[in-house]
Design a protein that fits this description.
This protein is mostly helical. Helices cover 62% and strands 0% of the residues. The protein is elongated.
Length: 79
């Protein structure tokens, strides 16, 4: 965070605006907010192939199945 702060100071000395660009997570948004910067919504257009979408759906399904299996095993052990 020191590097970011120094970058803000440098931009200010040069009469420039420091652009935080964007953030991809809640954690990053909180870090930006800690400098007093208000989050600005920036639309993002993303393209993904059908194969990629299938892979994502399959991974999500497997995670759900894994979670259900773990819950089942933990219930069985507690009995």
């Amino acid at each position: 965070m020191v590097l970011i702060w120094k970058s803000i100071e440098y931009a200010n000395k040069k009469g420039l605006t420091f652009d935080f660009d964007s953030f991809a997570s809640v954690r990053a948004a909180k870090m930006i907010a800690s400098f007093g910067q208000s989050p600005i919504a920036r639309p993002q257009v993303m393209y993904s192939s059908v194969l990629y979408k299938w892979e994502r759906a399959a991974n999500a399904t497997l995670l759900k199945i894994k979670g259900s299996a773990l819950q089942y095993c933990s219930k069985k052990e507690s009995v």
